[in-house]
Amino acid sequence: MKFVKDLHVDSIDFLREDYILLRLVDPDQALPPMLPGQFVQIAIDDSSTTFLRRPISINDVDVEKHSIVLLIHMVGDGTKSLGKLRKGQTLNCIYPLGNGFTVPPISEGKKKLLLIGGGVGTAPMLLYGRQLFEAGHEPVFLLGGRSQRDLLELDRFSAFGRVFTTTEDSTMGETGFVTHHSIWKKEQFDSVAACGPKPMMQAVAKLAREYDTPCFVSLENLMACGIGACLCCIEKTVKGNVCVCTEGPVFNTNQLTWE
C-alpha cells in the first residue's frame, strides 16, 4: 500500500555540516509496513531550481511514534533546502516505494548476514539491521568511508550488531575499502547485503561470488518519478531492462549483468 501524504517534521539533527537525520511523523495514523531498501519521494517546495521529487532511502522507523527517519546528504539545491526545515513544517511524501531487502523467517533458522554500507548508502542498512535483530538473526555491519568523519551513526548500528569499519586514510578501522576487510576471511555469512557507490557494490558482488555467498544490493540509479513512469532509472538485467524504482531498488546480484 502506498500513501501520498503531508508528513510533519519532528526533528532535524546535523550529523556533520552536509548530513542530516530528518524525522517525519504521521500525526493521523500508524505507518504502513516498511522494508529496508524502500524509499520516500519528497516534494521540494522551497527550491526554485528543484521541480522533481527527491528519492530518499528509509533509514529507520519508529512504529510507536509513527515516525520515519531519513539520512540525507545535502549535495544539491533540493536536499540543501531540507536542512532548512523547522519542527512542525510539512513535507508532501509518497511512501513506501520500491522493493526492499528480505528478512528471513526465524523458523528457517538463525542467519548471520553481512550488511555493507558506503556513504549515504549506509542508510537502509540500519533499518535492515534492526529488523534482522528483532527477528532473531545476527546482523554484522561493515561500513566504509574515505575517513573517520564519513562513518555516521555508529552508535545506532552497534545497538543491533557488531560493527566493523574501513577508511581509506587509516583514521578508523582497517585501511582500504570494505572488500579489503579481514572479516571476509575470518567469518562465513549466509548472505551479504550492500548499498553505496556502484563500484563498491560491484566489488562486493564479485567478492561474495568468490565466497559462494548470496549477495543483494540496493541500487541508487537516478530516479525522478518513483513509480516507473519516467524510465530514467533503467537497469539492465538478465531478463532485460527494468525500472529500479519499481522492480528494485533491491536486486539479487545474479539478476544483474555486472561483470
Structure characterization notes:
The chain has 259 residues and is of the alpha/beta class. Helix content is 17%, strand content 36%. It contains six helices and 15 strands. It has helices spanning 77-82, 123-135, 154-157, 183-186, 198-210, 244-247; strands at 3-16, 19-25, 39-42, 54-62, 67-73, 90-97, 112-118, 138-145, 162-167, 174-175, 191-195, 215-218, 234-237, 240-243, 250-252. It has a seven-stranded mixed beta sheet with strand order 10-9-8-7-11-12-15, sandwiched between helices. The chain has a six-stranded antiparallel beta barrel with strand order 1-2-5-4-3-6. β11, α5 (198-210) and β12 (215-218) form a beta-alpha-beta unit. The model has no long low-confidence stretch (mean pLDDT 93).
Class inferred from helices and paired strands: alpha/beta
* Share of residues in strands: 35-45%
The amount of helix comes to: 10-25%
Radius of gyration: 18 Å
Low-pLDDT runs: none
SS field, number of helical segments: 6
* Mean pLDDT over all positions: 93
Largest sheet: 7 strands, mixed
Overall, the morphology is: globular
